[in-house]
Amino acid sequence: GGTRYFRVYAAPLSGPEGALEGLVMVLSDVTRLRRLERVRKDFVANVSHELRTPIQLVKGFSENLLDTDFSDTEQTRRFLKIIHRNARRMEDLTGDLLLLMNLEAGDGPGLELEETPLKELLAEAAGMARAAADKKDITITLSCDEELNAKVNPSFLIQGVFNLLDNAIKYSPAGTAVELRAFAKDSEAVIEVADQGPGIAPEHLDRIFERFYRVDKSRSRKAGGTGLGLSIVRHIALLHHGSVEAESHAGEGSVFRIRIPG
Ligand code: ADP
């Protein structure tokens, strides 16, 4: 549905004496092109918007600092912490942007899919998430058959699973459990990350995989989110010719599921 856009090409048809005898018109449907231009513009606008706040904070607090004589070490420390936190935010954002661009261009570090035992790979992703989990007293349990293999790009898949674990930890209350499990089903390898967090309301479920879409902006920012984590996971699943989906009932936690064809 929605509006469609057309580009019109017209050329006159002249007769022997140069008299105008007709007009040839070509209508070409440029709706898709328009939509792509729109997506690109929105993306650039979003990136600028995301960068503006940390840049302003770094600028403002460094100016504040330069106006002082640094005698108040408590205050100096506080300002430096804000500057450091916001520099990190920009680092995370540019890092995620670069990764996303590479994934979209399909020219990441080696796209070969190799038959890989999943258990080790999942253990590595869980290891990367451990420090954040420990801070919140969250336990990550791993269940995966030793025999389970899939055709994957190990470094990309580790990144994808890590992003899901990272979210599960970020959005869940302290002291809860996160389950990482993988199994074979209908010739697919299925990887699930289940948490006991707040869950996601149905109207948001389809949209959370969009770039910069957040259910709760301030919550995501406070947790250190860039808003790109799940769109990165979606791209990684697509590079494996697979898919990612979320299942959740508000108040009952969420399950994220990556499917990789056999
Ligand atoms: P962010 O950097 O904001 O976490 P993501 O793309 O990773 O960006 O996730 C998009 C949004 O989806 C988050 O802002 C959050 O609202 C929601 N979300 C993702 N994972 C979970 C989860 N495990 N539990 C609840 N909400 C989640």
How would you briefly describe this protein structure?
Residues 1-42 form the PAC domain. The protein has 262 residues and is an alpha+beta fold.
Strand-helix topology:
Elements: E1 6-14, E2 20-29, H1 31-66, H2 73-105, E3 114-117, H3 118-135, E4 139-144, E5 149-152, H4 154-171, E6 177-185, E7 188-194, H5 202-205, H6 217-222, H7 229-239, E8 243-248, E9 254-261
Parallel strand pairs: 4-6
Antiparallel strand pairs: 1-2, 3-5, 6-7, 7-9, 8-9
Helix pairs in contact: 1-2, 2-7, 3-4, 4-7
The structure holds adenosine-5'-diphosphate.
Adenosine-5'-diphosphate binds next to helix 4 and helix 7.
- Molecules bound to protein: adenosine-5'-diphosphate
| Gyration radius, rounded | 25 Å
The largest β sheet comes out as: 5 strands, mixed
Strand content: 15-25%
Class computed from helices, strands and strand pairing = alpha+beta
**What are the segments in which pLDDT stays under 50 over at least 5 consecutive residues?**
none
Distance from N terminus to C terminus (CA atoms, Å) equals: 35 Å
> Mean pLDDT, as a whole number?
93
User: Reading side by side through the largest sheet, how are the strands ordered?
Assistant: 4-6-7-9-8
- Element order: H for helix, E for strand: EEHHEHEEHEEHHHEE
Using DSSP, what is the number of strands?
A: 9
Number of helices: 7
Percent range for helical residues? 40-55%
What would the principal axes of the Cα set say about the shape? flat
Organism: Breznakiella homolactica
Protein name: histidine kinase
